[in-house]
Amino acid sequence: MAQFDEIERLIGLKQSNRNIARALRCSRELVADVRAGNIRRDSISVSKKLENRLPPGWALQLNWEAIEKDLREGHQFKQIWDEVAKEVTSYTNFYKYVNVRFAALLAVTSTIREFNPGEYCEVDYAGDKIEWIDSKTCEIHEAHVFLGILCFSQKIFAYAAQDEKKVNWLDSHRKMFEFYEGVTAVVVPDCLKNGVVKCHRYDPDLNADYVELAKHYNTAIVPARPRHPKDKALVENAVGLVMRYFRFVCRKRTFTSLSEINEALRAVIDKINNKKHTRFKVSRQERYVSLEKTTLRQLPPEPYVLATTKPAKLHPDCTVAASDNNFYSAPYIYRGKDLRVKTGPSFVEIFFDLDRIALHNRAIGKVGERITKNEHLPPNSRAYKEATPQLLLSQARFANVDLHKLIDELFQEDALAHLRRTQGLVRKAFATIQTHGREKATPWISAAVEHMRRFGRIRVGTFEDLIQREIKKSAISREDRTIVRQPGNPMVRGHGTPKPEGTETTVPTQQLRLI
Length: 515
Description:
CATH class of the largest domain: Alpha Beta
Number of helices: 20
Strand content: 5-15%
Number of strands: 15
Helix content: 40-55%
CATH architecture of the largest domain: 2-Layer Sandwich
């Protein structure tokens, strides 16, 4: 009847048959029959379809008056088929034929689901958000309300968090189980990404962290089908019930924190749980205490450790990014491979397939930090990492006393800032000693250090230039710079070979021209 009224309303708005059928997900023939007046409110909804064709042979073998009576009494549709029609036709054929013959009757038929104590629990987020104002910054925030309900006693749980991220999703389950003081055999969530990675009618892929929570509490996760809210109808009704009552009770109140919202929610659900249920004739709390509490599975002896897992690939620097925005090392043999990083409140674990390959203490309160273990690095990187200030000081003491004093002063000023500079100074000093010997290199290194101190320019390049200058000065000092005149040189006046008296020096014309 509701569909019939909606079709008439859209026809009154002058919508086409195609648009109406598309909006209401019905056939255009049905819309055309309503527009033409073939189907009226007081007529049998689909009698004309049955008159135009003969019923199937199996339908003639059934007592339709008894079937109609059972449907009106609200009995489950599949149980009726199992009792009267299972031997003559399939459930699909029976459903299609009955849906056509008793369409108006089935539209108002509801089936009450029956649950065993401690068997099912349904969870979901409320669509409406609760606003609250930060008293310090005056910013407006929205609280997301998580709800759970025990399907047998229908006792309700509600908790507000700042968002619907995975951490709050898992923490809400932990608080819910503690509220119920037990765990149900099955938990029915919606197909949100925090719970279900990939939806499937029969075999959905669950989130790895959600599976870990289910293992810890020894429960099974059975998600509802996508776009089938009736699979978790109890929690859907509980969401509407709690949020309507909350908005009415707190309509004149302004919240300034999540704790205030949770206190108000606790008062609301206590009011609802202690109110007499119209169908049970007792309150939800009384039904829970008397019939369901003892059937719930016990909570684990150890509390659930809230941890999140994310996929990551090991970088060439042998680190992966964790959920806390820090970087943690793993063995270098796994570089370029897909890993899983599990971040807990005080630890970080790195897995390859099912093997844990690294364990770190979490860097709490830090962002962008690199937590590295030397055993995770390749040999060359490990040797580079071992260049600590203490090692450089010991090497400088062995190379030259003056150089050791200079490096010690630099480290007293700022060890990390001068670490690479001192590496260059020590390396050049050892290279000079190895090439020229310690006896010759020691005064050169001391002179270079003294020169750098005098001019206040302590740089590796300056040190190298000064060493080269000392080497050149030493080479020049070793050379014999005495000028030796060769006797009998005719080109030098006054220094030629002495001639006997009375002889004249005759110079050829060609030689004169050259002079």
